[in-house]
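Weekly sync, protein design subgroup
Attendees: M.S., D.O., the rotation student, P.L. (late)

Item 1: inverse folding check
M.S. brought a backbone from last month's batch and wanted to see whether the design step gives back something sensible before we order anything. D.O. pointed out we never logged the input encoding, so this time it goes straight into the notes. Structure tokens as presented (99 positions):
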């Protein structure tokens, strides 16, 4: 069990994330969404001298109505997540869908 109380399920970080994947998988098979991917990494701040790059890893990325959707199955919004969410919008122009 993690410090936030989530329990890893079927290879996902939480039961909520596993349930959401099952829902999205059905929508993908039905053709309502396409190109469903999991754990997609986006660089937020590149590597600098003596420092590692900072990335955000999206739970799910898919296409819906011709648009790319970046989704995070959130149970708890940490301060680090809030900063990364803002950096995603600033750096990539992507607003994360929180479910």
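Designed sequence read out in the meeting:
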């Amino acid at each position: 069990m993690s410090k936030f109380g989530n329990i890893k399920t079927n290879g996902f970080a939480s039961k909520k994330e596993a349930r959401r994947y099952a829902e999205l998988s059905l929508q993908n098979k039905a053709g309502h969404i396409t190109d469903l991917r999991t754990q997609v990494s986006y660089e937020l701040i590149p590597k600098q001298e003596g420092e590692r790059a900072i990335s955000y890893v999206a739970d799910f990325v898919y296409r819906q109505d011709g648009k790319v959707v970046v989704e995070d199955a959130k149970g708890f919004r940490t301060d680090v997540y809030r900063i990364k969410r803002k950096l995603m919008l600033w750096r990539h122009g992507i607003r994360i869908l929180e479910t």
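Discussion: The chain has a mean pLDDT of 92. Residues 15-30 form the longest helix (16 residues).
Action: P.L. to compare against the previous round before Friday.
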